[in-house]
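Input chain follows. Return structure tokens only.
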Amino acid sequence: MDEINNMKNNTQKLVIASITAIIGALMFVAPVLAATTATLSPATVNVTAGRQFSIAVSVNPQGTANYAEKIEINYPASILEVKSFTLGNNWMALTQPGYDSTDNINGILIRTAGYPAGLSSATAFGTVTFYAKKSGNGTIKIGSNSLAFQASAQSAVIGNAIVFTVTAPVVAPKPSTIVENTPVTLETEQAVVEESALSTEPTNQVEPISQVAAVSTAVPQGNGNTWIWILVVITILAIIGWGIYVSRKNREN
């Protein structure tokens, strides 16, 4: 009877010890599985619509050797568009479906790469270049499907989120069409007169003098005396003509 009780006690102790060991092992493994972090920088971005900006991505296994990383980045596709991604040094891209994609419709970027020598401390993973399509604000964050690959296991990668603000471009004011009045000075008037004199082309043509002008020159100008002078001229011409007539008659006789 005592032996049976001792066996039962020993069995219970063994079970309790096993459960304790399992819980302890899980408590030890849990932080390892969630140890790798991914960091986006800078923490905030301010940019004008129509311009590009870059975000650096780094990973940190925090002492646990990693040999590959799958990084997912989420962003609002209505405001931003991924233009390019450049891997850091010593990484080898994994381009299989599901591990390498750029979705500018749903705003998901996935890049996976191996690190042949393994890494256990903070390492630059790559650089993302975004294009700001329009004004707005939001966040760029590490996606929940990010994974870290160890020698014989894989674990989730946790990461931060950064805040961005896209402002509308400043519209330059239209140039004024108002013409300022320039004060006229004596120097300005002289310059205008000289320019007019230089621009006048000399002419050698002599305008014909009209008969009216000739008569006007011969007859003194005046308001009431004009007709008197005309009558005097006519009278003189009549006397001369009469003298010529009388002289001829005398010769004939």
